[in-house]
Write a structure and sequence with these properties.
The protein is elongated and about 170 Å long. The chain is an alpha+beta fold and about 300 residues long. It is about 25% helix and about 30% strand. The chain contains five helices and 16 strands.
Length: about 300
Amino acid sequence: MKTITWFGFVLGALSAAGEVIWTKPGQTAIFKCQAESYGTLEWLHHGTERIIRVDGRTGQQSKAHSDIVKRSAASETTLTVSSVKEADAGRFTCKVDRRVQEYTLLVVSVPSGVLQVGSTAKLQVKGKSSSTSVVQWKGPDGHLTDSETIQLNPVALSHNGTWECLFTLDKVTHKKSLEIKVEVPAPETAAPLPSQKSKDCHNCVTNPQPKETPLLQELSWWVWVALGVGCLVVILLIVFVIVLCVRIRRRKRKYQRRQNGQQPLKPRQFCQCNRPTAAAKPQQGRRREKPLALPRQPLLME
């Protein structure tokens, strides 16, 4: 009995004070139910809207049909809600068999980026679940405002700094710090002031000076004709000079070819070798002279 009473006291404290979870639109909220084992586990939204029911023996899950159910997933004793919306803010309940645990989801909406002095902005927190809960905003100057929404209209440099959102539930205060950045916009470049000369010349528009006529428009038609004829003559002269130069080059080439053709050919030079001269061949057509007969000597008689 002592163990059961102590466990019931802990759950009672959780149910009375509850757990506060802070988040922003578009982020993910995670709820963890304190239970080691269970027969059935059920998650509720706003106390009556069932999100999911889990059978601890089979692990089978049964879901309802709503927008928050489509974005919710249960794993053992943990519930995860993705893409949080402002409508999701409020009370979440975890029922484990016959025990109840309460959670409060607070969705804080603040402007992102740097605010410009003179613009408008809104600070808002959603999730007040009962009449006993209190929401307050504490500015950088320490001033407290009892409201869920604060309109900064217009935004001033005094709004720059750390803001605190205070949520009090069952005499327990929870805090969330937020940074707001404010800067002075860059000054716009002013248009140049009109000079004294432009002020004095107020009659320039009413009495405009006559425009100067271009020199080309003052020339007579015969001047244009003379210019055209002169240009044509220059072009013809250029063509005549080019043709004359081409003909002179051709004649010069022909003359050079003729001169090269009348030159006598140079005698060929042969290589002379140091060899003994061959014997002269007998002339053909002449008859060989017979050698003269020797005179006979008389025979000697014994």
